[in-house]
Design a protein that fits this description.
alpha/beta; GMP Synthetase, Chain A, domain 3; 5-stranded parallel sheet; Rossmann-like_a/b/a_fold; ATP-binding; Rossmann fold; GMP biosynthesis; 9-stranded mixed sheet; binds xanthosine-5'-monophosphate
């Protein structure tokens, strides 16, 4: 495996992805690691130092224990990583008068260097740096340059490399070859990170860890908790009990579908708790979005905790579908990262429930979770589901939430989502849903005046859900959907399509 010391670059995760795509396990770790910590990685083949926004010559700059660099593992410093190596080995790094952002031509000086095997000379690479090397440390020599910078160096006797450019981004031509040369030819890593082997290993580990104990898990129907549940269930069968809370804020037939898929197909113990009345009752009279969110979150925890406590005489473990990006985000707090996403997940359970935690997919990225899910036989329809917020329809019924309004919204949403599936559009957009507005407008149906609610269709294209644009759905398609809704759903007589991007809009309306 390869470890990546994280100095806060926006590309750190991408580095890990690129390596995992080559079937080699890569893990992002804190830069504060000590030489003794390296023993935690018995299959360690190489170390990468990531990029980062800081300058190595600043007073509190993030460093690396030099012993780690000299521990005998092949090392590759990328951007800030290269500058850090330079700084620690006695070279100099200074603010550049000509900063490089974007494409730059890479000229290879040491054509026989193994890092550049099968890489043609004079290719474009992606640069993004304000500092640059002005003197190379004595023990190093230059192996490539660009117009404005020393682009790559190597230690004279050891396998320590540094590159100024970002080989991990696709804009770097032959970037993948350069990374692969480091991973396979220099670090000599083996291809042994496959989802099927992951499943075998994970099941064996769960069996060993859990023994004859009992485990509970909060199933939401989303991909992460479903994959975690299926994996644990394959390992220990009926020693696992899942708790599925019907908040009354789920989509049409959702509770049934979840029960059907998991209880029937996977023979899992699932305890469904119908708490919908409790949720509707407590949401009465509340219309402010954050107050609703907090109320829903609190009720969810109450209901789950009560069920879990009932079982806790027996159960020792709480399994959760925590995935790798969650782990990186939370471990970064106060460390190298400048941007921290706020996690507003209703499934976020308090730590003092008194269980030991079992997190079987905490090493996986989202698309790896999906691959594992498919291999485990979870139906595509479940795996490809768009994200659904923890507070559910509670934040899609704008203003006060009632059962009646949720019922109307469920029908409209179901027509829209089913139509997207039928038109083969569902997997082409990243998130689609309907919002019910607390507004009535006048319409006409037959010879009669109507005075009913407005519903808004929302569909977005996005990579990371941090920014998004409205999907350009075909007009004919929208036309058909609108017709069907107006004809079939009582109490809605007008549909609008939300064309706002994020920012300034958010994906949800509340
Ligand atoms: P926004 O509305 O912030 O949404 O653009 C970005 C993504 O996050 C989802 N979302 C939530 N997920 N609890 C969740 O678990 C929440 O309170 C919540 N609010 C928004 C939203 O559906 C979208 O995928």
């Amino acid at each position: 495996q390869i470890i990546i010391l994280d100095y806060g670059s926006q590309y750190t995760q991408l580095l890990a992805r690129r390596i995992r795509e080559q079937n080699v396990l890569a893990e992002v770790v804190d830069f504060n690691l000590t030489k003794a910590d390296l023993l935690k990685y018995p299959n360690l083949k190489g170390i990468i130092l990531s990029g980062g926004p800081a300058s190595v010559y600043e007073e509190n700059a993030y460093m690396v224990d030099k012993e780690i660099l000299e521990a005998g593992y092949p090392v590759l410093g990328v951007c800030y990583g290269l500058q850090l190596i330079t700084h620690l080995f006695g070279g100099t790094v200074e603010a550049a008068t000509k900063q490089e952002f974007g494409k730059a031509q890479l000229v290879i000086d040491d054509l026989s260097n193994i890092l550049f095997d099968n890489v043609p000379n004079s290719k474009n690479v992606w640069m993004s740096h304000a500092d640059h090397l002005t003197t190379i440390p004595n023990d190093f020599y230059q192996i490539a340059h660009s117009d404005n910078s020393i682009a790559a160096i190597k230690h004279k006797n050891q396998n320590i490399y540094g590159i100024q450019f970002h080989a991990e981004v696709t804009h770097s031509e032959f970037g993948a070859e350069i990374l692969n040369n480091f991973i396979f030819k220099i670090a000599k890593a083996k291809k042994d990170w496959y989802m099927s082997t992951f499943i075998e290993k994970a099941i064996a580990q769960i069996k060993e860890k859990i023994g004859n104990d009992k485990v509970i898990l909060g199933l939401s129907g989303g991909v992460d908790s479903s994959v975690a549940a299926t994996l644990v269930s394959k390992a220990i069968g009926k020693q696992l009990t899942c708790i599925f809370v019907d908040t009354g804020l789920l989509r049409k037939n959702e509770a049934l579908q979840v029960m059907d898929t998991y209880a029937k197909n996977f023979d899992m113990n699932i305890k469904m708790v119908d708490a919908s009345e409790l949720f509707y009752k407590n949401l009465r009279g509340i219309s402010e979005p954050e107050t609703k969110r907090k109320m829903i979150g609190k009720l969810f925890i109450d209901v789950f905790t009560e069920e879990a406590r009932k079982m806790s005489r027996d159960a020792k473990w709480l399994a959760q579908g925590t995935i790798y990006p969650d782990v990186i985000e939370s471990s970064k707090e106060g460390h190298s990262s400048k941007t921290i996403k706020s996690h507003h997940n209703v499934g976020g359970l308090p730590e003092d429930l008194g269980f030991e935690l079992l997190e079987p997919i905490r090493d996986l990225f989202k698309d790896e979770v999906r691959k594992v899910g498919r291999e485990l036989g979870i139906p595509d329809k479940m795996i490809d589901r768009h994200p659904f917020p923890g507070p559910g329809l509670g934040i899609r019924v704008i203003g006060e939430v009632t059962k009646e309004k949720c019922d109307i919204l469920r029908e409209v949403d179901d027509i829209f989502i089913s139509a997207l599936h039928e038109a083969d559009l569902y997997t082409k957009v990243q998130q689609a849903h309907v919002v019910l507005l607390p507004v009535k407008t006048v319409g006409v149906m037959g010879d009669n005046r109507t005075y009913e609610f407005v519903a808004a269709l929302r569909s977005v294209d996005t990579v990371d859900f941090m920014t998004a644009t409205a999907s350009h759905l075909p007009w004919d398609f929208i036309d058909k959907v609108v017709n069907k809704i107006i004809n079939e759903v009582k109490h809605v007589n007008r549909i609008v399509y939300d064309v706002t991007s994020k920012p300034p809009g958010t994906i949800e309306w509340e």
